[in-house]
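Reopening this one. Same input as before:
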Amino acid sequence: MRAHPVDTRHAPVVSWRWKVLAAPPGADNAVAAREDSAARLLFAFDGDRSKLAWTDRTAMKLARSLSGREMPYATLMYVASDAAPVGTIVPNPHSSRVMMLVASPAAGALGRWQPLSRDLRLDFRDAFGEAPGRFFAWGVMTDSDNTGTEALARYGDVAFATDPGHGRAVAAAGRRVPCAGRRGRPGPAQRDYSDGQAPPTATA
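Same output, byte for byte:
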């Protein structure tokens, strides 16, 4: 994930497209051993870490010592899933500071571009029970490492706006990002292109 200067107080609505081409069989974001998704859109937020539980602060310190990077105060993920209805908020089984929201079906919509739109600030409140702090990074991810299966998705432009349909694209316009996770390995979707670099092209 990389930093991007979008103030969600003025542009809270995020719109994007993705197309799932292969969904990991048996994936369930609520179960640690099956926590995979063919398509994810991730948003990282800052906040007051001093009010977090001791366990969360300890986990963040450990992550920083191992990776050399500071964990976000909170991460909100939009995921494609068939294990729960669209709109369901799913706590990440590995961390209470990561919440997932089912934005679309996965295998139930194979091969179709799905145009999606969500209010980041409202979803953050629903997921974490508080107002969001500063949003500072976003990225995309396709993974199948826990199920040991295959996943494949393509991503279209991501845009932020005051309301749906009036977004300013922050991904490379007119490009699609092909991302694959195969046989238990996360795919290149873990790179993001929010810094304006042109992602690799792909045919529909």
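So the earlier flakiness isn't reproducible anymore. For the record, Residues 54-67 form the longest helix (14 residues).
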